[in-house]
């Protein structure tokens, strides 16, 4: 059974978080730390993954950008969004491929939203978690020796129109939005509490 430590670090720049993740990934590979999840928020920035760079996709004007090496295209970060970085060595039964790991993370978010009375779901259009016809959680990971870096976002109360204007990972603008925009008004703390109480979803043995 996996034991995961949560480290809630508040608001941090994306560049500082990236440096922290790289250091922690190396430490986890060498068993110097336990499986750890960083939860934070970033100042507004759009991260540009390899898919977006290869396809020549750029954010709208007026958005700061930062290149990243996780899978996928464009991902908006900013106020009103929880960013969750799992620095986890995925070595339990059933965790031998990326799809399985993504599914575990999706289930954690779906279960946590369900505890708050929101029905999250998967959608064939894109990995992550959707509410109705809109995406509120994006997932993009990078692995080294099967230890993850980067992670997922949960849009709970983003500034109106900001995340909606970004065509993330090949989706049309306005597809990705926030829980608040969909009529679900939750505080950051309530979502953190639900994620914390459902942390055992990240153990494959407990989520079967």
DSSP helix fraction: 25-40%
CATH fold title: BirA Bifunctional Protein, domain 2
Q: What is the class in the CATH system?
A: Alpha Beta
Q: Work out the helix count.
A: 5
Shape descriptor: globular
Number of strands: 10
Keywords:
globular; 10 strands; about 25% helix; BirA Bifunctional Protein, domain 2; alpha+beta; about 210 residues; seven-stranded mixed sheet
In words, what does this structure look like?
This protein is α+β, with helices and mostly antiparallel strands and 208 residues long. It has a single domain (5-207), classed as 2-Layer Sandwich (BirA Bifunctional Protein, domain 2). 26% of the residues lie in helices and 29% in strands. It has 5 helices and 10 strands. A 7-stranded mixed β-sheet has the order 1-2-6-10-9-8-7, sandwiched between helices. A hairpin with a 2-residue loop joins strand 7 and strand 8. The longest helix has 18 residues, at 98-115.
List the helices and strands and how they pair.
Blueprint: E1 5-11, H1 14-29, E2 36-41, E3 45-48, H2 50-55, E4 65-67, E5 74-77, E6 81-87, H3 98-115, E7 120-123, E8 126-131, E9 134-144, E10 147-155, H4 188-197, H5 204-207
Parallel strand pairs: 1-2, 3-4
Antiparallel strand pairs: 2-6, 3-5, 6-10, 7-8, 8-9, 9-10
């Amino acid at each position: 059974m996996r034991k995961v430590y949560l480290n809630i670090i508040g608001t941090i720049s994306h560049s500082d978080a990236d440096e922290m993740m790289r250091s922690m990934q190396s430490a986890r590979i060498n068993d110097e730390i336990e499986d750890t999840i960083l939860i934070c928020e970033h100042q507004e920035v759009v991260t540009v993954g390899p898919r977006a760079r290869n396809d020549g996709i750029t954010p709208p004007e007026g958005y700061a950008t930062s290149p990243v090496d996780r899978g996928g295209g464009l991902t908006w970060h900013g106020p009103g969004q929880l960013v969750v970085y799992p620095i986890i060595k995925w070595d339990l039964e059933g965790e031998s491929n990326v799809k399985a790991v993504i599914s575990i993370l999706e289930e954690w978010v779906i279960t946590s939203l369900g505890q708050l009375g929101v029905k999250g779901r998967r959608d064939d259009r894109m990995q992550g978690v959707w509410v109705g016809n809109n995406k509120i959680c994006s997932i993009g990971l990078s692995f080294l020796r099967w230890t993850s870096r980067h992670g997922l976002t949960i849009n709970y109360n983003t500034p109106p129109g900001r995340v909606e204007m970004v065509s993330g990972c090949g989706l049309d603008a306005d597809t990705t939005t926030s829980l608040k925009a969909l009529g679900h008004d939750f505080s950051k703390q309530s979502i953190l509490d639900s994620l914390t109480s459902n942390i055992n979803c990240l153990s494959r043995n407990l989520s079967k």
